[in-house]
Write a structure and sequence with these properties.
The structure holds 3 protein chains of 3 kinds. By secondary structure, chain A is mainly alpha-helical. Chain A is built from 17 helices and 2 strands. Helices cover 76% and strands 1% of the residues of chain A. In chain A, helix 4 packs across helix 11, helix 5 runs antiparallel to helix 11 and helix 8 crosses helix 9. Chain C has one domain. The chains are: A mainly alpha, B alpha/beta, C mainly alpha. At the A-B interface, helix 8, helix 9, helix 10, helix 11 and helix 17 of A face helix 2, helix 4, helix 5, helix 6 and helix 7 of B.
C-alpha cells in the first residue's frame, strides 16, 4: 500500500486537473466546485474533529460569517475580492478564537452544545442585522474577477484552495502537531505527561479551522451567488461533521472521500435527496455502532486482509549499548 | 540537584493518602518505592508529576519550586513518567508514539509545521530519528511500523519507557513497569533501567515485585498508610522488622 | 405594563418547559452519566403526537395524553437500547455523544418529513376562551406540569424501591452492579421514565410551543442551558435554571426585541460557567485522574 499511494495521488490530481474536460455537464462541474469549497472547510475542521477530537457541530456559523463578510466587502464596499477573501479568513479566525477561548475548556458535550448554539446565534444575527446582511431577503455575492469568473475558472480556484488546505493540514497532521492533537483526543493524561499544552493546542487547531471556514465561506458564497440565512441551515453544520466521522478520525483521505461521496450521493440518487438530513443521521448512527473508526479504517482493514502483514511475536530484546548511545546523544 | 518531595500531604475526602512524606531522587540513582496496596505510592507519583496538587508541603526539581506547576511544565523541566496501565495512542504507529515524547523539543509553530518549512521538516526528522534509535535500544526495533494498539503487553511497557526517554528527561518515574512481564522480560527491563541510571537519569521505581526492587535499586523507600516507615540501602530495608511485618511478611502470607 | 406582564408570564411558562427538559436530562444522566442530545426531542414528540392523536385521529384529550406519554417512553427506551447500551460498553467518551446526536437528527428529520416542517397549532385542552390573558392555560399548564414532575420525581426517588435503585446506581454504578442491581434494566427504565416525562411536558406546553419538529433542537439546547445554570444532577436547580433562562429571554425580548434570544441564552450560560462552573445548585466535582 505504501508504494501505491503516490501513484493514487497522482491519478487523483490528474483527474481533478482535467475534470472540466471530462465532466458530463455544467452541473457536474458545479458539484465538483461545491465539493472543493466544502473541503476547504472540512479539511480545516478535520484538525479539530478528526485529530483533536473536539466535536464541533456548528462550523456552519463560521461558513456563514465568511460568506457574508466576502459579500459585504467585495459587493457593497467594492473591496478587491482577494482582499475580501483574506478579510473573511481573518474574521473567521478571530471568531474561532473568541468562540474557542471559553468553550474549548469545557467537557465534550458542553463544547458541542456551545458550537451548536454559536451557529444558531449567527443565524439570529444575520436576520437581525438587516442593514448589513439584507436580513431574511439576503444579499447578492459578487463573482470573482477573471480568470475565475467562468465555471471552469472558478472550479480551478476552488480546487486549488482545496489542494492547499489538504497539503497544509497533511503536513501538520504528519508532524509533531498531529501527534500532539491525537494525544489530546485519545489520552489527555498522556498529552499532559509529554508536555502538550492541551488547551492551547486545541485553540490553535480551532483558530486554523476558523480561517479555513472563512475562506470556504467566501468561495461557497460566490458559488451560490446569492445568500440568505437559509443558505446556512444548522443541518449543514451536521453534514460537515458527519463527513469527517464517517470518513474516519485521524485521517485526511477518509474525510475527503466522505465529503465527496456525501455531497454527490443525494444529487445522483434522488430518493436520498428527499430523505436529506435523515439519511446523514442514519449513516452516522450505523457508522458509530458498527465501525466507530470510520469507513476509511474498514477499507484499510480490507486491504490488509488481502496482504496480511507478518506481525509475528518477537521477544523484546533491548540493545543496551544502542540505548545508552541514544540517551547520551539526547542529553549531549 | 535532585527531585524532591518535601513533607507533602494529600487527603481525599476524609482519608489521608499521604502525610508529610519527604523523598529525594538523585540523578544517576535507582530509587525504589514499595509498600502495600493503598499505601500512597501512586499518589506520591501523581504529586511529583503534577496530576495532583499537594495539600501541604512542596515539590522541588533541581532547586526550582514546582509545587504549583502544571504537568506540562514539569515535563519541560525534565520529568518523565510511565503509567501503571500503559497509556499509549493505539491508533498511531510505535514510532509516532515514541516521537510524541519529543514534543518539548518541537520549536516549530503550527504554521511552520503545516507549511513544511525546511526548519520544521529537519526538526521532525531529528525527533523521529531519535525515537527510532531509542526504540531499537529498548528492543522494539522489529515493531517500529506497527500500530501501538496491536502491541503485546510487554511491548507496550517498553514503548512507554521509550516515549519517556524521548523527552530527554533528567528524572523518570516508572509506575509498576514489571507488572505482567515474564522473568526474562523483567531481566531486560532491569538492563534498561540500569542503562538509564548509568546515563545519569534518576529513576524512581514503584514496584510490587520486591525481589526485582531489592536487586536493582540503590536506595529503597517503604510507605505504609501514607507514611514512610523505612528508608535506606536495599539490604537494610529488606531486614527492617516494620517492612517485614506490613509488607514482605504480609505478601508472603497472602501468596 | 400589561405587555410586560404577559412577557414575564410567558417567560415563566417557557422556563418551565426548559426546566422540565432539564429534569429529563437529569433522569438519564443519573443512571448512565450521559447527556443525551435526544432530550429536547422527547418533548417535541409529546407535542407532535399529542396534536396528531387529537386532531387527526379524534382521540379524546386524556387518551391522547396517555398515548403521547407512551410514545415518549418508547422512544426513551429505544434510545437506551440503540444509542446507549452498546456504546457505553466501549467506554469511548465521545461515542455516546455521536450516537445520541445521530438518533436526535433522525427523529427530528423523520417527524419533519411525516408531520411537515411548519409549526401546527395544538388544540385547547380545557374549555377556556381567549380573553384570559396571563391566566391562559397555555401559560400555567407547563408550569403546573414541571412542578408536578419535580415533586413526583422526588417522591419516586425517596419513597419507592425502584427509585432507591436509581439513586444507588447514580451514586456508584460499579458498586450497584456488584450488589446485584440489574444496572442495564435500571438504566433502560430511567430512559423510559425520562421519555415519559419529556413527552408529558411537551404535551402540556404545546399550546405555547406549537406542534413543531424544530423545537426538539431548541429544547435540547435551552434545556441543557437550564441544566448547566441550575447545576448538573440537581432537580430543584433544573427548575430554577429554566426559570432564570425563560424570564431572562422574555424580558430581553420585551425590551430589545426577539432577535437576540439565542445570544442571551448562551451569554447566560457562559457567565454561569465562568463564575460558578458547577451551576447554582451543583456540587463541585471531585474527580481524581
Amino acid at each position: 500500500m505504501k508504494h501505491s499511494r503516490p501513484a493514487l495521488l497522482a491519478a487523483l490530481l490528474f483527474a481533478a486537473a482535467t475534470l472540466p474536460w471530462w465532466a458530463g455537464n455544467q452541473y457536474q462541474l458545479h458539484l465538483a466546485t461545491l465539493i472543493s469549497a466544502y473541503w476547504v472547510l472540512i479539511g480545516g475542521l478535520n484538525l479539530v474533529v478528526g485529530y483533536a477530537g473536539q466535536l464541533s457541530i456548528g462550523h456552519v456559523g463560521l461558513l456563514a460569517i465568511g460568506a457574508y463578510c466576502f459579500a459585504i466587502l467585495a459587493g457593497a464596499h467594492g473591496v478587491h475580492p482577494a482582499l475580501a477573501v483574506a478579510a473573511a479568513g481573518a474574521l473567521c479566525g478571530l471568531c474561532g478564537l473568541l468562540l474557542g477561548l471559553p468553550s474549548l475548556r469545557l467537557p465534550g458535550f458542553y463544547f458541542a452544545m456551545a458550537t451548536a448554539a454559536f451557529s444558531l446565534i449567527v443565524t439570529e444575527m444575520s436576520l437581525a442585522l438587516g442593514g448589513l446582511t439584507g436580513g431574511g431577503v439576503g444579499i447578492a455575492v459578487p463573482a470573482f474577477p477573471p480568470p475565475f469568473d467562468t465555471p471552469q475558472g472558478f472550479y480551478y480556484l476552488c480546487a486549488g484552495a482545496a489542494l492547499l488546505v489538504t497539503w497544509l493540514t497533511g503536513n501538520a497532521a504528519r508532524g509533531t502537531w498531529g501527534r500532539g492533537l491525537i494525544a489530546i483526543r485519545d489520552s489527555q493524561v498522556t498529552a499532559q505527561a509529554v508536555g502538550v499544552p492541551v488547551f492551547r493546542a486545541k485553540l490553535v487547531a480551532f483558530v486554523a479551522s476558523g480561517i479555513a471556514a472563512g475562506l470556504a465561506g467566501a468561495l461557497f458564497g460566490a458559488l451560490q451567488s446569492y445568500i440568505t440565512p437559509d443558505t446556512f441551515p444548522f443541518d449543514l453544520g451536521l453534514f460537515f461533521f458527519v463527513c469527517i466521522i464517517i470518513g474516519g478520525r485521524g485521517s485526511i483521505v477518509g474525510p475527503f472521500v466522505g465529503t465527496a461521496v456525501l455531497t454527490a450521493l443525494p444529487e445522483l440518487v434522488a430518493p436520498l435527496a428527499k430523505l436529506g438530513t435523515f439519511f446523514y443521521g442514519l449513516l452516522l448512527l450505523v457508522v458509530v455502532l458498527l465501525v466507530p473508526e470510520g469507513i476509511g479504517r474498514l477499507v484499510e482493514a480490507a486491504i490488509r486482509r488481502f496482504r496480511p502483514a507478518r506481525e509475528e511475536s518477537v521477544p523484546v530484546r533491548p540493545d543496551l549499548a544502542r540505548l545508552a548511545a541514544a540517551i547520551r546523544e539526547g542529553r549531549g | 540537584m535532585s527531585l524532591e518531595a518535601r513533607e507533602v500531604s494529600k487527603r481525599f475526602g476524609g482519608i489521608a493518602a499521604l502525610s508529610e512524606v519527604s523523598l529525594a531522587l538523585e540523578p544517576g540513582e535507582v530509587h525504589g518505592l514499595i509498600g502495600p496496596n493503598g499505601s500512597g505510592k501512586t499518589t506520591l507519583l501523581n504529586l511529583l508529576s503534577g496530576y495532583y496538587r499537594a495539600d501541604a508541603g512542596g515539590i522541588v526539581l533541581d532547586d526550582e519550586d514546582l509545587t504549583l506547576a502544571t504537568v506540562q511544565r514539569r515535563a519541560f523541566k525534565g520529568l518523565a513518567r510511565t503509567f501503571q496501565k500503559p497509556r499509549l495512542l493505539p491508533a498511531l504507529s510505535v514510532l509516532d508514539n515514541a516521537a510524541l515524547g519529543g514534543w518539548r523539543d518541537c520549536s516549530a509553530g503550527f504554521l511552520a509545521s503545516s507549511a513544511a518549512l525546511p526548519r520544521a521538516r529537519r526538526e521532525d526528522r531529528m525527533l523521529r530519528g531519535r525515537a527510532e534509535e531509542l526504540l531499537h535500544g529498548v528492543g522494539l526495533g522489529h515493531a517500529i511500523g506497527r500500530r501501538a494498539g496491536n502491541l503485546e503487553h510487554a511491548e507496550q511497557r517498553f514503548l512507554e519507557i521509550a516515549r519517556g526517554l524521548a523527552m530527554r528527561p533528567r528524572y523518570i518515574l516508572l509506575d509498576e513497569p514489571a507488572g505482567g512481564l515474564t522473568p526474562a522480560e523483567i531481566r531486560h527491563l532491569g538492563g534498561v533501567i540500569r542503562t538509564m541510571r548509568d546515563c545519569g537519569i534518576g529513576v524512581l521505581l514503584v514496584e510490587h515485585h520486591t525481589d526485582f526492587v531489592f536487586r536493582i535499586c540503590d536506595r529503597v523507600t517503604t510507605l505504609d498508610l501514607g507514611r514512610i516507615i523505612a528508608h535506606g540501602a536495599p539490604d537494610a530495608v529488606r531486614r527492617n522488622p516494620d517492612v517485614i511485618r506490613v509488607y514482605l511478611g504480609g505478601s508472603h502470607a497472602a501468596a | 405594563m400589561d405587555g410586560l406582564l404577559i412577557a414575564i408570564v410567558s417567560g415563566v411558562a417557557n422556563g418551565a418547559v426548559y426546566g422540565a427538559t432539564a429534569l429529563a436530562y437529569n433522569a438519564m444522566f443519573s443512571t448512565s452519566k450521559v447527556l443525551s442530545v435526544t432530550t429536547g426531542h422527547l418533548a417535541m414528540l409529546g407535542g407532535v403526537f399529542g396534536a396528531w392523536f387529537i386532531t387527526a385521529l379524534g382521540v379524546p384529550a386524556w387518551l391522547a395524553l396517555a398515548l403521547a406519554i407512551a410514545v415518549g417512553a418508547l422512544f426513551g427506551l429505544l434510545t437506551e437500547l440503540i444509542a446507549i447500551r452498546r456504546v457505553l460498553a466501549r467506554s469511548d467518551e465521545h461515542l455516546w455523544l455521536l450516537s445520541t446526536l445521530a438518533l436526535a437528527t433522525m427523529v427530528s428529520q423523520a417527524v419533519g418529513l411525516w408531520w411537515g416542517t411548519e409549526p401546527k397549532p395544538f388544540p385547547r385542552l380545557i374549555a377556556q376562551d381567549d380573553t384570559a390573558g396571563p391566566l391562559d392555560q397555555k401559560y400555567w399548564l407547563p408550569v403546573l406540569v414541571a412542578l408536578l414532575l419535580a415533586g413526583l420525581l422526588e417522591l419516586f426517588y425517596r419513597r419507592t424501591l425502584y427509585g432507591k435503585l436509581f439513586v444507588a446506581m447514580s451514586e456508584d454504578a460499579f458498586a450497584a452492579r456488584a450488589r446485584g442491581i440489574p444496572t442495564d434494566l435500571v438504566r433502560a427504565a430511567s430512559y423510559a421514565l425520562a421519555g415519559a416525562m419529556g413527552a408529558l411536558a411537551g404535551f402540556a406546553a404545546a399550546q405555547l410551543t406549537f406542534a413543531y419538529f424544530a423545537i426538539g433542537l431548541t429544547l435540547t439546547l435551552n434545556g441543557f442551558i437550564a441544566l448547566a445554570v441550575g447545576g448538573l444532577g440537581s432537580n430543584p436547580g433544573a427548575l430554577v435554571g429554566g426559570l432564570v433562562l425563560g424570564v431572562l429571554s422574555a424580558v430581553t425580548t420585551y425590551f430589545i426585541g426577539g432577535e437576540f434570544q439565542q445570544t442571551v441564552a448562551v451569554g447566560l450560560l457562559m457567565i454561569v460557567l465562568l463564575v460558578r462552573p458547577q451551576g447554582l445548585f451543583g456540587h463541585p466535582d471531585v474527580r481524581p485522574v
